[in-house]
Amino acid sequence: MYRNHEHYPDLTAGRALGSLRRKENQLNTGKQFEADWKSSMPKDAWCYRLKDSAATYYGGNENLSFSIDNICDFDVYRYPMHHYFELKTIETPSIPLEKILGRFDRERQKYHKLKHITDMAHAASFKGQTAHVVINYRGKVNRTFAVPASAVLEYMSTQTRKSIPWQWAALNGIEVEQHLLRVHWRYDVEGLLRVLEGGSTK
User: Fold this and answer.
1) Is 37 within 8 Å of 74 (Cβ atoms)?
2) Which InterPro entries match (predicted)?
């Protein structure tokens, strides 16, 4: 329990501190997933981790000047194809659309990061390029799927649910095999790239 300078219990400050720690832990989990994904990259693939927008660290404030605005997390090239990957990890069996598309702006009636996924889908419409949202469902599900950006957009426009269940990701994406080392995970990115390079329709 947090105590103030007079050593009395301070529940308000304690709750605030706990909330900050939970947010930090969630951030660390996402960063660890990204680090594990990069470590899983085959040696013959060029992989670049695009830098996060400064807005990410300020609650998604899109009014920050000179803020980098990348469409995805990873830019990967392996002859003869170019791949875009946006990584998301969630503890629950269903991932909220806001976790993928950013917060929903009620005034504008659109998601803050919708353009990112739209741009990814557009990039994938060119021959030799693919774009996927890689969703890591932790917890009881413990499975990872690479879902085409275009499928995420279709889900958003045709479904009433505000979250994507893992079963839908399994039907509409490519499962990425995974295994646990002592602490960190390794993902079969080699297998995923092989499927994508083979012209899978998924």
Assistant:
1) yes
2) Restrct_endonuc-II-like, tRNA_endonuc-like_dom_sf
Six-digit token string for 48: 């670049």
Q: Which of 51, 151, 139 is nearest to 100 (CA)?
A: 151
pLDDT tens digits along 111-144: 989 999 999 999 999 999 999 999 999 999 999 9
Structure tokens of 34?
Answer: 């990204």
* Contact between residue 105 and residue 111 where contact means Cβ atoms under 8 Å apart: yes
Give the integer Cα–Cα distance in Å for 60 and 58. Answer: 6
Topology at the third CATH level for domain 32-197: Trna Endonuclease; Chain: A, domain 1 (3.40.1350)
Structure tokens at 16: 């605030």
Q: What single string gives the DSSP state of each residue in 45-105?
A: SEEEEPPPPGGGGGTS-TT-TT----S-SEEEEETTEEEEEEEEEESSSEEEHHHHH--EE
The H-or-E segment that residue 11 falls in is: helix 11-39
**Tens-digit pLDDT profile for residues 30-65:** 999 999 999 999 999 999 999 875 544 444 445 544
What are 59's two structure tokens? 């609650």
The tokens 């990069």 sit on which residue?
Answer: 38
The span from the CA of 86 to the CA of 153, in Å, is 14
